[in-house]
């Protein structure tokens, strides 16, 4: 049996088992049974098509038809988008052009999703009178200004067709549409919980695959490019340390991307953490509480099931052996704890528990090995940390040569030659530096403005709610923690593969959450809306 078919068998066994277990209604996932089944079937079909079609264009054509059919009954396109986005590595091939045009576009799964899922939704949403007009919110304006500057920087240095393709079409499909659809369609607690459950389940599908890859030293998707007959420069075998452990990738194409995705899934899963039955504002107002001496029942996912799911996600995060996502996950969990009700007492209990666990772990040989993998204190692959530090210093010097609008051809700058690695590439492993180098401090300011105004909107929404135990408050805390974690992680990876799609999808969710909350709880006078929303 060919290796890629053996890999398919393992993927179906591992992923199929997770889908079957997660689909048990006794577990209480918030997704409707029909929606869960549809997304499971789409994942299964996408995986089978990827391994069995033996031709990239057949794969894309049939997958497009599957997505069009599934979208007709899908009430939450963001959830379906997330399933397919991480189901298959984003292989691409160019659609041939005509009349002197070399090619139309390079098509991959994320762009196919933009064309068949998000583009029709954009047309429908624009026609609805109750949809916030794009540009009416402050993050919209920063995003629009950044995209205009991005396109304008491309035009003087490239042909018109390539400028439209690289500077307009691709950002529209990969950045604008995920942001716009997420910010305009996900506007209820149930919809947010549905998205969180879907991302968590996909993380739980990826996690055991990642652990399998580490234990067997075998990347299950590494031969899929040959099966589809497409070139692919990602998916290489990477290890942590000299002759060390294989860094898992699953379907993401790179271990950093796996860690990035697992961090998002883990933090999203905290939205589904079981709570005591009858807790919340409504219950407190009625003055009821659990009888003394009895264990309070829980609502939603059983506690044991939630703990098992969280353990699986943490295992997948560890299997990536990517320190940036590890740090992002820790910071995200800290943000979640700090913003919780009775934060100080919870932080104290968690801090004591973590300190005891860490001390006990470090007293074992395994703990000492783990310590060597950590950034700044460990010795494994310490050159990666020093490379990133040098990259910042060199990039700042390059940016200051053209500080306002940057240089489109910054990669040819002689100063950056000292950062060329043994593979013959200059790896700009920092999204913020990449923006500053290409579009200068003006571009970086606009880019950071998208995040800053979105974060401020989340803070406004959280402070506007009178009850910090409400479900809406928990949604906002999870979004805030996830967005902070993502902002930290993208400082360790460039905008490759699906990094921008997931990032701007989260930004859109956060913007939509702010509008959902303020429609019910207007801002207090101490927190004026300012120019965040020009039209409410």
Q: Can you characterise this structure?
A:
With 536 residues, this protein is mainly α. It has two domains: 1-93 and 103-120 and 187-276 and 301-321, no CATH class; 131-185 and 381-536, no CATH class. It has 19 helices and six strands. The chain has helices at 3-22, 33-52, 56-73, 77-85, 109-127, 138-154, 160-185, 189-216, 224-228, 255-269, 281-286, 303-319, 323-338, 343-362, 365-373, 382-399, 431-464, 471-489, 499-520; strands spanning 92-96, 103-108, 239-240, 245-246, 275-276, 298-299. It has a two-stranded antiparallel sheet with strand order 1-2. The chain is globular and about 65 Å long. Residues 280-297 have low confidence and may be disordered.
- Supply Rg: 23 Å
- How many E strands? 6
Q: How many structural domains?
A: 2
How far apart, in Å, are the first and last alpha carbons? 61 Å
Mean pLDDT: 87
Low-confidence stretches: 280-297
Count of runs of 4 or more consecutive helical residues: 19
Q: Approximately how much helix is present in the residues? A: 55-70%
With strands numbered from the N-terminus, the spatial order across the biggest sheet is: 1-2
**What shape does the CA trace take?**
globular
Main beta-sheet annotation: 2 strands, antiparallel
* Helix/strand order: HHHHEEHHHHHEEHEHEHHHHHHHH
Strand content: under 5%
Structural class: mainly alpha
């Amino acid at each position: 049996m060919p290796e890629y078919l053996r890999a398919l068998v393992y993927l179906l066994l591992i992923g199929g088992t997770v889908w079957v277990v997660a689909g048990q209604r006794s577990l209480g996932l918030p997704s409707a049974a029909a929606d869960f089944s549809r997304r499971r079937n789409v994942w299964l079909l996408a995986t089978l098509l990827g391994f069995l079609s033996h031709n990239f264009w057949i794969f894309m054509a049939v997958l497009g038809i599957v997505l069009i059919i599934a979208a007709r009954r899908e009430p939450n396109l963001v959830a379906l988008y997330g399933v397919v986005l991480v189901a298959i590595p984003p292989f691409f091939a160019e659609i041939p052009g005509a009349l002197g045009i070399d090619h139309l576009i390079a098509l991959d799964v994320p762009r196919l999703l933009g064309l068949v899922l998000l583009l029709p939704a954009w047309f429908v949403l624009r026609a609805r009178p109750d949809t916030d007009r794009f540009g009416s919110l402050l993050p919209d304006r920063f995003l629009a200004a950044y995209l205009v500057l991005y396109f304008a920087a491309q035009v003087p240095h490239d042909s018109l067709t390539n400028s439209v393709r690289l500077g307009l079409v691709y950002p529209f499909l990969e950045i604008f549409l995920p942001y716009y659809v997420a910010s305009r369609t996900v506007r209820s607690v149930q919809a947010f919980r549905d998205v969180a459950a879907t991302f968590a389940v996909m993380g739980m599908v990826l996690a055991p695959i990642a652990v399998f890859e580490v234990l067997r030293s075998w990347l299950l998707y590494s031969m899929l490019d040959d099966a589809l007959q497409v070139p692919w420069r990602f998916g290489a075998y990477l290890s942590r340390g000299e002759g060390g452990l294989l860094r898992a990738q699953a379907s993401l194409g790179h271990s950093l991307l796996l860690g990035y995705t697992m961090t998002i899934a883990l933090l999203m899963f905290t939205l589904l953490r079981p709570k005591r039955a009858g807790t919340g504002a409504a219950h407190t107002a009625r003055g009821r509480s659990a009888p003394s001496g009895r264990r309070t029942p829980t609502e939603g996912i059983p506690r044991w099931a939630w703990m098992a799911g969280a353990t699986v996600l943490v295992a997948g995060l560890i299997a990536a052996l990517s320190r940036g996502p590890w740090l992002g996950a820790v910071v995200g969990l800290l943000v979640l704890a700090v913003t919780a009700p009775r934060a100080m007492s919870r932080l104290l209990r968690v801090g004591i528990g973590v300190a005891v666990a860490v001390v006990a772990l470090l007293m074992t040989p395994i703990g000492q090995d783990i310590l060597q993998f950590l950034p700044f204190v460990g010795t494994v692959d310490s050159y990666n940390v020093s490379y990133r530090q040098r990259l910042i210093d060199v990039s700042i010097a390059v940016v200051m040569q053209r500080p306002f609008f940057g240089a489109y051809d910054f990669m040819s700058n002689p100063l950056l030659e000292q950062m060329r690695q043994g593979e013959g590439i200059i790896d700009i492993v920092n999204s913020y530096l990449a923006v500053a180098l290409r579009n200068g401090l003006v571009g970086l300011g606009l880019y950071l403005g998208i995040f800053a105004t979105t974060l401020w909107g989340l803070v406004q929404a959280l402070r506007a709610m009178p009850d910090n135990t409400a479900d809406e408050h928990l949604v906002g805390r999870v979004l805030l923690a996830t967005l902070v974690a993502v902002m930290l992680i993208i400082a360790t990876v460039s905008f490759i593969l699906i990094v921008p799609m997931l990032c701007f999808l989260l930004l859109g969710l956060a913007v939509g959450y702010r509008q959902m909350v303020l429609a019910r709880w207007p801002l207090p006078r101490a927190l004026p809306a300012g120019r965040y929303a020009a039209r409410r």
